[in-house]
Design a protein that fits this description.
The complex is a heterodimer of chains A (467) and B (201).
Chain A lengths: L5 H8 L1 E4 L5 E4 L2 E4 L5 H10 L9 E3 L18 H17 L2 E2 L10 H7 L8 E4 L13 E4 L2 H10 L1 E4 L3 E8 L8 H12 L7 E6 L1 H4 L3 H9 L8 E3 L4 H7 L8 H11 L12 E6 L6 E3 L7 E3 L13 H13 L14 E4 L1 H4 L2 H11 L9 E4 L4 H9 L2 H8 L2 E2 L20 E4 L14 E4 L2 H10 L10
Parallel strand pairs in A: 3-4, 3-6, 4-5, 6-7, 9-10, 9-12, 10-11, 15-16, 15-18, 16-17, 18-19
Antiparallel strand pairs in A: 1-2, 2-8, 13-14
Chain B lengths: L5 E9 L6 H4 L19 H4 L22 E4 L11 H9 L3 E4 L4 H9 L3 E4 L2 H11 L6 E5 L4 E3 L5 E3 L4 H8 L4 H6 L2 H14 L4
Parallel strand pairs in B: 1-2, 2-3, 3-4
Antiparallel strand pairs in B: 1-5, 5-6, 6-7
The chains are: A alpha/beta (467), B alpha/beta (201).
Bound molecules: iron/sulfur cluster.
Chain lengths: 467, 201
């Protein structure tokens, strides 16, 4: 048999039909659903008298609209948000799909809940009406976002009409230096390849530095594959993966576990597999980074200065000018001198237990800068509980952080957690677009440890100075 | 998706060029959880005054056009945002067919996905049909998709082109989902095989 990549193998194992014109039907093993992109899809099923083909493979959880304040049991004030969540409640019930309602301790951001509950397993196809579905690629699952019409298509048929992408390999060699994390890897890759660098590709991340990452770190890396334009990101499963998966509520058990494990161990790219594109970065060369602009590709080491738009080429010159204008930054300013108003730790990129541990380690025994607003929003109710048990919540609260309930929160500001115009935020989320965290809000993306350091000093800070 | 074979109905004249999807359904109605129910806000800003009352002169508010199923319009219909809410709103109002000299690409595709037939005819022929539509409720046009013809209330016949695959889908009421469901035997077979090979999924 010809040599295949991991993507080729998962693709082949899920090809349900191939038409003469090359259009393929890909079978979907897991369909994750949230409240914002699904109402019209369920409505479509009702209007056509269709059902959910595989309710057992369909998992729903509200996350985007939910309040993260401690009084959220009283309900959602914003009527449109409330209706969207209520619609999901009803749809989950009517169609008999797995559901984690707002007040279930297991509720959280869909991309955190899926892996946590063992829904996401190696070798699966996973889709969700959400671009950050790429997160699940950390398990060696082919995972990507889809639109509302496709959500309906998957609900009705458990398949997706697809054309195959190309194969791209991103290798991070060697080891990371102290203070450098998975977030710095993923941002640095986008900084190097650009936000369209992955367009048309499925990326497989490999190399020693990737192998050394925990599952949490791998999820952070794959989460932002979409920000690099790729259809999906993948990391081949290994002992780290199997250890994380084993014992999760929906992971296989007993003989099934053994059978699954035997197959999962074949899920890696063959040595002589062909790649359409290869990018290699030395792990030692990656520094703690921050974004300075309004695109995730606007990445620089924290030791650098705000760039001069004239240093770019083509359309990027104008884009950089516009970015700096929006961000209120002057070329030549040291990034470490940029003062911030707010710190947001959370999101499907960095809302897992390890992220909270890394941030807590920096703020332990310290106070956040006077006048700063800082919040920690755990990615799920279970992450919150664990952090409380480990004493992390107290560390944050003692330092002056708000400790919140699980949800997407200020990652996209669809609930009341928003930036005001001009407010500058150190955020662990994934998008620094204009207005993403609130109209006029200014976002700098970084790792949880870097965000924690910024909370203490009140400015963008090199975390290595505090280690 | 509802089949489209033949349609005989009232045609409403909208002699404007560059009707954009913001005009068809303004952005404040995109927060809905439904595809249906948007018909009441179709052409909202042209149709209602600030106090919410109807603007009597707007074509769809005139008694003879309230039941219109066909819209005759000017060049570049459906330009602007890609919102699928635009065909959703047209459909919810009852419009199954639009006749115009040209369309914006995305809107044109979205129509087919939602069971609406967008017909392209040369300007002169659209002009004839526009005049026909202006006659009001007595002027019923007939669309025959199989024959690919529009027949005016006077019996004048115009032929139009349509992509054969899209025609097939529309005539059989097949959306992507419907088409995929035609392959359900393949999906069943795949599912059975996958179940035995990977029973833990
Ligand atoms: S945390 Fe942010 S990026 Fe992730 S699913 Fe929620 S809104 Fe999307």
């Amino acid at each position: 048999m010809t040599a295949r990549t991991l993507y080729d193998k998962i693709w082949d194992a899920h090809l349900a039909h191939e038409a003469e014109d090359g259009t393929c039907l890909l079978y979907i093993d897991r369909h994750l659903v949230h409240e914002v992109t699904s109402p019209q899809a369920f409505e479509g099923l009702r209007m056509t008298g269709r059902t959910v083909r595989a309710p057992d493979k369909t998992i729903a959880v509200p996350d985007h609209n939910v309040p993260t304040t401690w009084d959220r049991e009283k309900g959602i004030d914003n009527e449109e948000s409330r209706i969207q969540v209520e619609a999901l409640d009803k749809n989950a019930k009517d169609f008999g799909i797995h559901y984690y309602p707002v007040n279930d301790i297991r509720q959280g951001i869909v991309h955190i809940v899926g892996p946590e509950q063992g829904w996401t397993l190696p070798g699966m196809t996973v889709v969700c009406g959400d671009s950050h579905t790429a997160t699940h690629g950390a398990f060696g699952a082919l995972a990507h976002g889809i639109g509302t019409s496709e959500v309906e298509h998957v609900l009705a048929t458990q398949t997706l009409i697809q054309k195959k992408s190309k194969n791209m390999r991103v290798e991070i060699t060697g080891q990371l230096r102290p203070g450098v994390t998975a977030k710095d890897i993923t941002l640095s890759v986008i900084g190097k390849t650009g936000t369209a660098g992955g367009t048309g590709y499925v990326i497989e991340y490999c190399g020693e530095a990737i192998r050394s990452l925990s599952m949490e770190g791998r999820m952070t890396v794959c989460n932002m594959a979409i920000e690099g334009g790729a259809r999906a990101g993948l990391i081949a499963p290994d002992e780290t993966t199997f250890e994380y998966v084993q014992g999760r509520p929906h992971a296989p058990k007993g003989a099934q576990w053994e059978a699954a494990l035997a197959w999962w161990k074949t899920l890696h790219s063959d040595d002589d597999a062909q790649w359409d594109k290869v990018v290699t970065i030395r792990g030692e060369d990656i520094a703690p980074v921050v974004t300075w602009g309004t695109s995730p590709e606007d990445v620089l080491p924290i030791t650098d200065v705000v760039p001069d738009p004239a240093s770019f080429e083509g359309g990027k010159v104008e884009a950089a000018k516009r970015s700096l204008d929006y961000m209120g930054l002057t070329p030549g300013t040291k990034l470490a001198d940029v003062e911030i108003d707010t710190v947001f730790i959370g999101s499907c990129t960095n809302g897992r237990i390890e992220d909270l541990r890394a941030a807590a380690e920096i703020v332990k025994g310290k106070k956040i800068k006077d006048g700063l607003r800082a919040m920690v929003v755990p990615g799920s109710g279970l992450v919150r509980l664990q952090a409380e048990e480990e004493g992390l919540a107290d560390i944050f609260k003692d330092a002056g952080f708000e400790w919140r309930l699980a949800g997407c929160s200020m990652c996209l500001a669809m609930n009341p957690d928003q930036l005001s115009p001009g407010e500058r935020c150190a955020a662990t989320s994934n998008r620094n677009f204009e207005g993403r965290q609130g109209r006029g809000g200014r976002t700098h993306l970084m790792s949880p440890a870097m965000a924690a350091a910024a909370a203490v000093t009140g400015r963008l800070t090199d975390v290595r100075e505090m280690m | 998706m509802e089949k489209f074979e033949t349609l005989t109905g009232i045609a409403a004249p909208l002699p404007l060029i560059n009707v954009d999807t913001d005009m068809i359904i303004p952005k404040q109605f995109l927060k809905t959880i439904k595809r249906s129910g948007l018909g009441v806000n179709l052409f909202d800003e042209m149709r209602y005054a600030d106090d919410g009352s109807e603007i009597p002169e707007f074509v769809l508010n005139r008694p003879q056009y309230r039941e219109a199923q066909i819209l005759v319009a000017g060049d570049n219909f459906g330009c602007g945002s890609s919102r699928e809410h635009a065909p959703w709103a047209l459909l919810d109002f009852g419009i199954r067919c639009v006749i115009a000299p040209s369309y914006a690409d995305i809107f044109y595709n979205n129509c087919f996905k939602n069971g609406i037939l967008p017909i392209v005819l040369p300007q002169e022929q659209v002009d004839v049909l526009m005049k026909d539509a202006e006659k009001g409720a007595n002027a019923r046009m007939t669309i025959d998709l199989d024959a690919q013809t529009v027949t005016s209330s006077d019996g004048e016949v115009f032929s139009f082109d349509v992509d054969p695959f899209r025609k097939h889908c529309l005539m059989n009421g097949l959306d992507d989902i419907g088409l995929t469901m035609e392959k359900s035997a393949s999906i069943d077979a795949f599912e059975a095989k996958a179940q035995s090979e990977r029973p833990w999924v």
